[in-house]
Amino acid sequence: MSPPGRVIGFGSAAVLVIAGAVCAVIIEGLTSDVLAIVLITLGLGEALLLVFMEIGLSEDRERAKEQERRRRRPPRRLRPIRRGRRPG
């Protein structure tokens, strides 16, 4: 995810939470409660999903780096197994 995409994603989540809080203060009655709950839940849910996506993307980048390191590393030479008589 690009940096501008992060700003837009987390910014929109923050806007939803703030809008829910403002609705709770300005509007009266049941409509206020429902609107506040819905907007705040959507904002916090979006933020949580974005955090999980960031964690997944960072793990993918780390996995790709590890694969690149393994690909560049020269192959290990294995020693032959010596088969002999077992003491006993």
Describe the secondary structure blueprint for this structure.
Layout: H1 3-26, H2 30-72
Helix pairs in contact: 1-2
How many H/I helical runs?
2
Mean pLDDT: 88
Work out the oligomeric state of the chains in this entry: single chain
Distance between the termini: 63 Å
Q: Which structural class is indicated by helix and strand composition?
A: mainly alpha
Unreliable residue runs: none
Q: What percent of residues are in strands?
A: under 5%
Helix content: over 70%
Count the domains. Answer: 1
Number of strands: 0
Overall, the morphology is elongated
Structural Rg: 27 Å
Let me know the largest β-sheet.
Answer: none
Sequence of secondary-structure elements = HH
Please tell me about this protein's structure.
With 88 residues, the chain is mostly helical. It has one domain (3-72). The protein has 2 helices and no strands. Helix 1 (3-26) runs antiparallel to helix 2 (30-72). The longest helix is centred in the middle third of the chain and has 43 residues, at 30-72. It is elongated and about 90 Å long.
